[in-house]
Amino acid sequence: MSLELDDLYREVILDHYRTPRGAAPLPAPDVREEGFNPLCGDELTLELNVEAGVITDLSVRSRGCSISVASGSLLAEALQGKTLAEARQILDGFKAMMQGQPPADGVEMGDLEVLEGVKNFPVRIKCALLAWTTLEQALSRVEPR
User: Fold this and answer.
1) Strand 54-63 versus strand 31-37 pairing type
2) Rounded Cα gap, residues 90 and 100, in angstroms
């Protein structure tokens, strides 16, 4: 990755850390899940509202390192208005990306690609995945696979 692109990605991550998107609590969520990474103390609360198989609203409130908070913020942006099936595809694509694999054909990662470099730092992968593993738990409560 070029140095300029690396700097841009770092700026996007810091922007999401400083100003997380989707951080307002939902007044009456359909599903609420707590996530915790004991390795570094990251924690988050993820809330979803789902109507007719579509994520109509979601909230991710994170406390922890910049990667964990930015990942939750990017998740909130990426999944708003998506169907549950689309959310699962993006979730699977993100997990694949963190393992150094490409997402399935047709799955666009969009802004989530700024976190791709985290895969080069194995100790930080759990930070990036915290919001996504919490989402996986929430989705299993809404609609089991």
Assistant:
1) unpaired
2) 15
Between the CA of residue 47 and those of 38, 71, 76, 130, what are the distances in Å? Answer: 21, 15, 10, 14
Q: Is the pTM of this model over 0.90?
A: yes
Strands (E), the chain: 31-37, 42-51, 54-63
User: In this predicted model, what pLDDT tens digit does every residue of 5-24 receive, in sequence order?
Assistant: 577 678 889 999 999 999 99
Please state, in angstroms and rounded to a whole number, the distance separating the CA atoms of residues 61 and 124.
19
Distance (Å, whole) CA 1 – CA 93: 20
Indicate the length of the chain as a whole number.
145
**CA distances, 6 to each of 33, 80, 114, 115, 139 (Å):** 32, 27, 9, 10, 32
Per residue in 90-144, pLDDT tens?
Answer: 999 999 999 999 888 888 899 999 999 999 999 999 999 999 999 999 999 987 6
pLDDT recorded at residue 5: 56
User: What are the backbone dihedrals phi and psi of residue 40, each rounded to the nearest 5 degrees, phi first?
Assistant: -130, 0
